[in-house]
Amino acid sequence: MNTTIIAFFNNKGGVGKTSLVYHLAWMYSDLGFRVVAADLDPQANLTSAFIDADRLEELWPDGNHPKTVFGCVQPLIRAIGDIADPHLEYVESQLSLRGGKLALLVGDLSLSGFEDQLSEVWPKCMDGDERAFRVISAFWRMMQKTAIIHKADVILMDLGPNLGAINRAALIAADYVVVPLSPDLFSLQGLRNLGPTLRRWRENWKDRLTRNPADDLELPKGRMQPIGYVVLQHSVRLDRPVKAYNRWIDRIPTVYREAVLNQPGENNISVGDDFHCLALIKNYQSLMPMAQEARKPMFHLKPADGAIGAHTSAVKNVYQDFEALASKITERTEVKIL
Fold first, then answer.
1. Is 272 exposed, middle or buried, given 0-12, 13-18 or 19+ CB atoms closer than 10 A?
2. Which residues, other chains included, contact 220 with Cβ-Cβ below 8 Å and sequence gap of 6+?
3. What domains are defined for the chain?
4. What pLDDT digit, counting tens, does each position of 203-243 carry?
5. Deepest in the core among 180, 221, 304, 324, taking most CB within 10 A?
6. Prediction pTM value
7. What are phi and psi for residue 236, nearest 5 degrees?
8. What is the rounded CA–CA span in Å between residue 272 and residue 263?
């Protein structure tokens, strides 16, 4: 049985996607799940959130970076073999309530060099080219290997904000897709681009699956099932009045239905009442710098980290927000503790 992969994706950047994956990975670990956080964004921001600079220097030495996602696909890029065995970087937490384990599939800025090859082999799958299928399915097979090593219950995948060949191969690997949003014009436009693209990639992959020439090559199903969106609120600034904020957030339910689900929009439904809204994450601006300095999620902050006074109740609120979000995602997927 393959481990469930959940992608967090919006082709509009700056919506807090990486922070969302980071905090959910910790939350699932706190709740007792064995988690793999897979950094497939060539910017590798998720990796830098988990790992300090000294360790990153060890993982990104000059050369092939064998302990990263890029190192894992190097044999395919060089046409000397299939994917290499993946390295898992373990993240230790003394605060895990039920003994969950968290591991990172390390990202790499060099991964962008895989883009051209992924683009080149995509049409060759239609010709039944076995190597093309191995290249396109590399991310999925790599993540499933990590799941076996880690005995993972779930894989959370962070992606870059674009509709290129890397993200196409990564999303084909996903069972479910969560869309992080911010209440602005750019996020809504991102939804309008994302929905039709997901449907096209899903259908294109379905056509290709029938042409797999290798009986021993297991491939992803390419489900890419959207299970909802998360609105990450920003603080209201002078250049973004409340009316403008409300204008954009009120449009999200209709645009999500029409663009992502290809269903008729439902008028007069608010984000708070929308079934497809997984969470409305408040702005915790004062906690984020503190958490980054302490190299831990916001809901693990302690008085020793500076979380005193009003921050103490804010930390509890963050925990409750992410616990509720993790539970809702679990309800809508096949994720369960094995």
1. exposed
2. 137, 140, 172, 173, 205
3. 5-285 (3.40.50.300)
4. 999 999 999 999 999 999 999 999 999 998 765 444 455 66
5. 180
6. 0.94
7. -80, 120
8. 19
